[in-house]
Specification:
about 50% strand, two-stranded antiparallel sheet, mainly beta, 12-stranded mixed sheet
Amino acid sequence: MTWRLVALATLALLVSACSTTVRHPAGGTSLEQWEMRGKFSARTRDDSHSGSWRWLQNADNNTLSLSGPLGVAATEISSDGHTATIRRGGGHITVSADNTDALGIDAPLPLPAMRYWLLGQAAPATLYPIAASEREHGSLSALTQAGWSLHFNRYEAVGTMQLPGLIIATHGDVRLKLLVKHWDFSVSPDISPVR
C-alpha cells in the first residue's frame, strides 16, 4: 500500500517553492518538453507518506519517478496518454492511463490531466469535464476536475510564465501537497512511448 500511496501522491500534483531553480531553453519556453523535480507529502485517513518526485514530459509521453526517504519504494510510471506502465522493484504492470484499481486505491489517477495541472492549468474539458474553477489575478486558484479538488497557491514568475508554488489536491480521504524544487524547460527528455 505504501508505494501505491506514494504513486498517487506524486501523480496528483506538484508545486514550486521559494527555493525553486529554473533553466530555460534559448529563445523561449517549450511546454512540450520539460522536467520538474521536488518533494511531496500524502495523507489518507489511516496513513501518511512523503518523498521525492521527478516528472519528465515529452509531447504526449511522460514519466513520473517516485521515491520515499533514502530511495525506499522507488516507483516509475510511464504513460503515452492512453496506457501507463508502473514499475516497482523487478516487476511491472500496464494499465489504462486512468485506471483506478491498478494501484489498489479508491482515487482515480488521471495521468493525461497531470501535465496540465502541474503547470497550473485545467486539462482540456474534452479529456475531463471541469466541475468548477476560480481565477485570482488571472491565474487559476482552484479547480475541480476528474474528481479532484485542486488549490494552486504562491504563483511565481518562471521565465515568461506564472507557475504555482504550491498545489494542494484532495480526493475523498486523500490529501496531497507537492513542492517543486527544480524546473527545467531546456531538457530534451528521452521518453519513449509505452509499449
